[in-house]
Amino acid sequence: MQPEVEILSGLERRIDVVVSTADVEKEVQAQLKRVARTAKIQGFRPGKAPLSIVERSHGPSIRYEAINNELGKALDEAIEKSGLRVAGVPSIEPKEDAAEGTMAFTATFEVYPEITLPNLAELEVTRSNVNVGDAEVDRTIDILRKQRANYEAREDRAAQDDDRVTLDFTGKIDGEAFEGGSAEAFSFVLGQGRMLPEFEEAAKGMKAGEEKTFPLTFPEDYAGTEVAGKTAEFTIKITEVAEPILPELNDEFAKQLGQAEGDIDALLADVRANIEREAKARVQARTKASVMDALLKASEFDIPKALVDNEVQNRVAMARQELQQRGLPNADSMPIPEEIFKDEAERRVRLGLLLSELVQQADLKATPEQVRARIEEFAQNYEQPEQVISYYLSDAQRRAEIEAIVLEDNVVEHVVSQAKVTDEDVAFEQLMGNN
């Protein structure tokens, strides 16, 4: 008999489930006999206590388990007959008007939505492209040289970008010093953005021995909440200005960067290959984001609250794990407001359902060959790629992570092949976030 499904609102459904008390008692008696063979009860040798005594001590928990088992089977059967796809865990409530010899329950749950895919030919997406040439390789080499610079103090040098300045500073708000507002012999490199822009600007052009007082307004979203949005008066005294001395582009430099033979040409080739891989990954990510945004914009359907709640809890757990890794002592108990994750959780759930439907309808499953190729490509970022390949291929869960990425790649390729595509050339510096 087809169970009656009551539609409550949106994706919420309710059905009644009936369990036979005779079936429950049959299961209870079978479990009691099994437990009685080994039960340790005071006053009796193990396995010798009467069944009635065993029932008194173990009966309630066994009966509870038996009811849940029978209820689970009845609910599974009812859901299967109704053809519903349940999202999340059903909420079960007992009913008072059960027929004689039965126990009745009401199961309330959400179902997965029916998804109508948008017309892909009407989607407008942007495909990003970038050129990696000699200039980009040269800029990357310059960055690597600056990262390995030695600094030499210059007595009469006016501080400029890339110089390392050492200074003493004192900051006051309304005439009062504040925590973290003072330091001695503090060093930083100008132009790297380590300090607030006003602080760096004040230090530029100063020489060793010079002193300056200037105002600085902390951003409203500054990490130090006690000074965020407030204006401080800083006094700085430069004790040293050091000029960067970049390493020569020679065999020794190549060896420092892991080129064992000290071959500059081989180093340049490696650098080019690395930035080409990185640039490719970033333009693919931009194109993917455009495709996902277009799909979401063109799709409208209800999403199960249970899936959103589960995603929110996953976000909270990840946030706690990150806090633990940072060494916060109360990471397990500190309050983390769930609402800050809700919008992103809804987006992820909606996108996941949409992609799953698209993968199924267009048969975009990840093939073993695609998965291996993606693993091999990813492994090239490491010194021993063969070990990385083995690491992923030897474990089903790790392979599943790559399969998910390949699935998304397949979706992007499929959508781009049918949508209205606008090609966008992205400057390398913009792509890499260097401007």
Description:
- With 435 residues, the protein is of the alpha+beta class.
- It contains twelve helices and eleven strands.
- It has helices at residues 21-36, 51-82, 134-147, 197-203, 251-256, 264-297, 305-325, 342-362, 368-379, 385-393, 396-418, 428-431, and strands spanning 6-9, 12-20, 86-94, 102-111, 124-129, 150-153, 164-173, 176-189, 211-217, 231-245, 420-425.
- The strands form three sheets. Strands 6, 7, 8, 9 and 10 form a five-stranded antiparallel β-sheet that branches. Strands 1-2-4-3 form a four-stranded antiparallel β-sheet.
- Helix 7 packs across helix 8, helix 9 (368-379) packs antiparallel against helix 10 (385-393) and helix 9 (368-379) crosses helix 11 (396-418).
- The relative contact order is 0.11.
- The mean pLDDT is 91.
Shape: elongated
Q: How many E-type strands?
A: 11
Q: What is the name of the CATH topology of the largest domain?
A: Trigger factor, domain 2
Radius of gyration: 33 Å
Mean pLDDT: 91
Distance between the first and last residues' Cα: 67 Å
Q: Could you give a short description of this structure?
A:
Helix content is 46%, strand content 22%. The protein has helices at residues 21-36, 51-82, 134-147, 197-203, 251-256, 264-297, 305-325, 342-362, 368-379, 385-393, 396-418, 428-431, and strands spanning 6-9, 12-20, 86-94, 102-111, 124-129, 150-153, 164-173, 176-189, 211-217, 231-245, 420-425. Helix 6 crosses helix 11 (396-418) and helix 8 crosses helix 11 (396-418).
